[in-house]
Structure formats: structure tokens, C-alpha cells
Amino acid sequence: QAGKWGVEDQMNFLITGAAGFLGSALANRLAREGHQVRGLDDLSTGNPQALSPEVLFTRGDVNDRPKLWTLLQDVDCVYHLAARVAVPESILYPREYNATNVGGTVSLMEAMRDVGVRRVVFTSSGAVYGDQQEQPLSEDARPNPRSPYAVSKLAAEYYVRTIGDLWGIETVSLRIFNVYGPGQHLPPSHPPVIPNFLRQAMRDGTIVVHGDGSQTRDYVFLDDVVSAMVAAATAPDIGQRVINIGSGQETSVRELVRIILDITGSKAEIINNPRNDPGVSRMRADIRLAQEKLNYYPQVSLETGLRLTLERDPRFKGERPARSAQRG
Ligand code: NAD
Q1: For residue 137, which phi and psi values (nearest 5 degrees)?
Q2: Whole-number Å distance between alpha carbons of 267 and 245
Q3: How far apart are CA 300 and CA 308, in angstroms?
Q4: First to last CA, the chain
Q5: pLDDT at 319 (0 to 100)
Q6: Ligand 1 site: residues with CB under 6 angstroms?
Q7: pTM for this prediction
Q8: Spacing of C-alpha 65 from chain mean position
Q9: How much is the average pLDDT of 3-9?
Q10: Nearest of 90, 67, 53, 84 to residue 14 by alpha carbon
């Protein structure tokens, strides 16, 4: 089965963006399975405390090629996650998004070529699809990016595939949909929807829904995404491919709020803000290619994943007294 290697199959990995939400979960999982894991992160948003001690961590920029040359020695597979990831911020600072997300990817591919690394797994995004009539979104839909972030991911996909083709590097770009789970960043401005709503629910605060809440997203739990990424390191016949990683389900923001209120018992106030851009109207991943190529079958439903997030993320603990305690 994908991701289950014996000790004799121990591999050497480099993960860029290793101190981030997805990177740290992946690094810890690979290290736990007995692999050698090197992590690179400039700590612009990452937290090295999230990494287990077995992960060999280096602080540095993904554009620093001499550093990459050193870190890439004897590496079997690179996971390239380092990126700026906030869509609204990318609208304000497109040049920075281009420099890190596109420039950083080109630097990495060049360094991989120089050192002679065999495979790279790149974390692209479902955002490259933008608004599409046809759902679920299949990999051959024509991309329609709506933000500099989405453009940067699409451009990086092309660089990864093209440089890989030219130099015989196996590449796979995973178009990942809306990931959530313990450890997700919760920045003060433009926080991702799930940790933001969970925090407001746990405080009996205010949940602000952009638009009327009918827009849907494909929310996928962290552990399922990590399993797909692990499988992508060794799966045969995935060279130069683009593969969707989502849950395969779509949930409206309104429905998400209902589930969150239900599992937390929260008395949070719900406000609809019609002036805030709700973004694309529908997002649902077609995951048949991932099933075929990566043996990827997501295991965690949205409700279970939200419960696991509340249980495992200490930031949500103790924010709100248990329901029984409140009555006393
Ligand atoms: P994250 O911000 O937690 O991780 C990105 C990491 O990259 C951070 O730790 C940051 O410090 C680091 N970084 C930024 N610029 C760097 C640079 N110049 N050099 C080295 N490191 C740098 O975000 P995440 O949610 O873990 O996302 C990881 C990857 O997955 C990103 O490429 C993102 O585009 C992609 N992705 C995430 C989602 C999601 O829902 N979380 C969905 C689709 C794609």
C-alpha cells in the first residue's frame, strides 16, 4: 500500500516550507515512518517548534541556490511547499508573490537539475481553476485563475513540468483544495474560513459570512492530504502529471456554519456581509485521477475532521466552557 515502506526503503527527503501548516505535518509523518527528512523554511510564517526533533531543520530562503545545492545532496524526492499563501495579500503584493512562488520554484528546479534529483512533488492549488461552470473540477478543465496567488501557482506548475521534462526529473503537481486541521495559521487579517469560524464559535463571538453563504468549497482534512503527498513520492507512472487532491465533496459556507454550531453548541452570532466578495461560486474536486494514481481515498468526513481539529489543536481548548459547566 502507498506510503508503507519497510526500513530497507528508507528515503531522503527535502521539504521546502517545512515549518508551515502542511509542511510540518508531512515532515513529522515521514520522520515517524523512519525516513531522513530535511526541512527548509525562511520562517516568514512558519513555526519550527511544530517540527519533531528528528527533522533536520535549516532556516533559509527557497531562492538561495547555494543552500539548496547543499541540502539536495543524496535527496530522493523533494516536496516543494514554500510559498506565500494568502489570496487577498497577493492582490496587494503581486510582485512578492511572483518572486517567492514562481521565482522560488524556478530556483529550486534549477538546483535540482544541477544536483540531479529524481522527483519533485509540488503543492499547487485548486485556486487555479477559478470560476467554472462544470463541476466537479477535473484536471483537464481550462484554468481560470482569479488572483495573483492562483496565477503564481499555475505558472509554477508549468515551470515544474517543463524544466522536469527538459532534464528528466519526474514531477507531480498536486492541486490541493481547501485544507483544514490542527495547526492551521490564524492570522489577524484574512484568516482561513475554518479556523476563523471555529475560534468565533468557541468564544461565542461573531461569524461573518461573505455574501449569502451559498458558495461551496471542497474542504479536505490535513491527514488525508498528507497521505496523498506521501503516496506521491513513490507512486509509479505519475511523472509530469497534475492531480487534484480534495475530499470530492462540496459544502456551502452556510452548511459549514451549521455543522460548526452543531458540534460546538455555540451561541455565536451569524452576520451575512453582502459587500464582501464571496469568491468563486462552486468548488468541488474530481478526485478520480488521485484514486487511480495515488490510491487516494479520503477517510475523514467534514464533521469528524472539525471535531478532530478542536480536539488536537490546543489553541481551541479552554476558549469556551463546556456546555454543562455553563449552566451551573
Ligand atoms: P504555510 O504558510 O503554513 O506554509 C508555507 C511555508 O513556506 C511557511 O512556513 C513559510 O514560512 C514558508 N515560506 C514562505 N516563503 C518562503 C521562502 N521564500 N523560502 C522558504 N520558505 C518560505 O501554508 P500551507 O497551508 O502549509 O501551504 C503549503 C503549500 O500548500 C503552499 O505552497 C500552498 O500554496 C499549498 N496549498 C495549501 C492549501 C491549503 O488549504 N492550506 C491549499 C492549496 C495549496
Answers
A1: -80, 120
A2: 34
A3: 9
A4: 51
A5: 65
A6: 16-17, 19-23, 40-46, 61-62, 81-85, 100, 104, 123, 125, 176, 178-179, 185
A7: 0.95
A8: 24
A9: 55
A10: 67
- CA of 127, closest atom in ligand 1: 43
pLDDT at 277: 81
Helix (H) or strand (E) run with residue 32 in it = helix 21-32
Write the single-letter amino acid at 164: G
> Which pLDDT score, from 0 to 100, does residue 325 have?
41
Kindly report, residue by residue over 33-82, the tens digit of the pLDDT: 999 999 999 999 999 999 999 999 999 999 999 999 999 999 999 999 99
Among protein residues, the one with the nearest Cα to ligand 1's atom 34 is 85
Cβ atoms of 137 and 126 within 8 Å: the answer is yes
Distance between CA atoms of residues 124 and 85, nearest Å = 11
- Residue 136 carries which side chain, given as an amino acid letter? P
Give yes or no for residue 328 having a pLDDT over 60. no
C-alpha 75: how far from chain center:
22
Q: Which amino acid is at 272?
A: N
- At residue 238, does pLDDT exceed 70? yes
User: How many other C-beta atoms are found inside a 10 Å radius of the C-beta of residue 106?
Assistant: 15
Spatial strand order in the sheet of 36-41: 56-59, 36-41, 12-16, 77-80, 119-125, 170-176, 241-245
Strand, coil or helix: what is 20? coil
